[in-house]
Amino acid sequence: MNDMTNKPKSGEPAGDDTKLTFRRFKNGENMWTGWKDLTEKIFQADHSYKCPTYVHRTPPCQGSCPSGHEIRGWLAIARQMDKPSVPGMKWQEYAFQRMVEANPFPATMGRVCPAPCEDGCNRNEVDDFVGINAVEQYVGDWANSNTLKLPAAGTFTGKKVAVIGGGPAGLAAAYFLRRKGHAVSIFEAHDKLGGMMRYGIPGYRTPRDMLDTEIQRILDMGVDVRLNTKVGRDVTVEELEGAFDAIFWAVGAQKGRGLPVPGWEGTENCITGVEFLDAFNQGWVAGTAKKVIVVGGGDTSIDVASVARRLGHITHKAEKDIDAHNVLGFTAHDVAGDRKSVV
Ligand code: SF4
User: What is the number of helices (H) and of strands (E) in the chain?
Assistant: First the structure.
């Protein structure tokens, strides 16, 4: 354990096995053979029955995060163990800078990510996981209300990249490409950016002003945006290939899964959760049926159930509610009648 045992003898070169580190214990070492009572004190301390063992691997929280967040790094900042070197910089800004090395949407991800990092947290072995997701949301919100900026774009490389889709993947790609100095044009079929963060998740979970702030921060790095532009309809792949050095496809997963039962397709007012949320988030749904059945128990089905509950159903239908341009046949008039289903 003792540093002295690792020290090279006088005149000997310091090889890897003799290198001094901050670690108090070598890998696999779990017993102290020095003072007798110290074993008890160290390994059966108040809350934990053993000391942490330092190993040089990716921390389990970081390894479980799909974004590859350096969680341990920004938690150390939140704990004030790692302090900013810039005088006057707040820890929240320092933590934000660390977060956006991996992900430019801390406020959004802090709200909607199912937080697999917390499942991987070492602390589960002791009592419960660290509230990683909550720290991320707090720092993201702080950055929004203090108008923090992302790192500046890199020096222009002369390369142009077309990003197809302005959802989380497309916007994140645009952000990292701009940091490397490439010119970026985003082609988005909708009239707003955000993809599933806007059209798949209700506004009470991803508040639109928060979303707009996080998106604008990326656009401020100098990203060209073409809204209402669908590849295959408004622009061809050949045109894009001629005008850009590379194309990044970020079209997302916008199709819901139907029920695996015969007759599901074509059943009136029986739609996928993704379709329902898309229609609601585009402002096309004013009310639901009196009774709605949601099949499934994941995040999407909870969103569908809570949106349907919040909308309520329409009891007094008026003819003027009929919209000639109704979409999915899902207008207030249409849904006010019989029992319908939403999957
Ligand atoms: S909550 Fe944040 S840190 Fe955790 S897995 Fe999701 S994005 Fe990664």
Answer: 15, 7
d(CA 202, CA 137): 17
Give φ, ψ of 80 to 5 degrees: 65, 20
**pTM score:** 0.75
The dihedral through the CA atoms of 17, 23, 29, 31 has a sign that is positive
Per domain, the residue ranges of the chain are 3-43, 60-145, 160-249, 270-342
Q: What are phi and psi of 224, to 5 degrees?
A: -85, 135
Kindly indicate whether the domain formed by 60-145 is annotated with CATH number 1.10.1060.10.
yes
CA angle 200, 202, 206 (to 5 degrees): 95
Nearest residue to 109 via CA among 35, 210, 240, 219: 210
Q: Which CATH fold would you assign to the domain 160-249?
A: FAD/NAD(P)-binding domain (3.50.50)
- Specify the ligand 1 atom closest to the Cα of 71: 3
| Dist. CA 253–CA 272, nearest whole Å | 13
Residues enclosing ligand 1, CB less than 6 A? 65, 67, 69, 71, 109, 113, 115-117, 132-133, 136
Assess contact for 188 and 166: CB atoms under 8 A. Answer: yes
pLDDT truncated to tens, each residue of the chain (343 aa)?
334 444 444 554 444 554 544 444 556 666 656 655 555 545 444 445 455 556 677 888 998 999 999 999 999 999 999 999 999 999 999 999 999 999 999 999 999 999 999 988 878 777 789 999 999 999 999 999 999 999 999 999 999 999 999 999 999 999 999 999 999 999 999 999 999 999 999 999 999 999 999 999 999 999 999 999 999 999 999 999 999 999 999 998 888 888 888 888 888 888 899 989 998 898 888 778 888 899 888 888 899 998 988 888 766 655 555 555 555 555 444 444 444 444 4
- State which of 61, 71, 113 you would mutate to test the pocket of ligand 1, scoring each by most atoms of that ligand within 8 A of its C-beta: 113
**Nearest Cα residue to 149 out of 70, 74, 213, 67:** 213
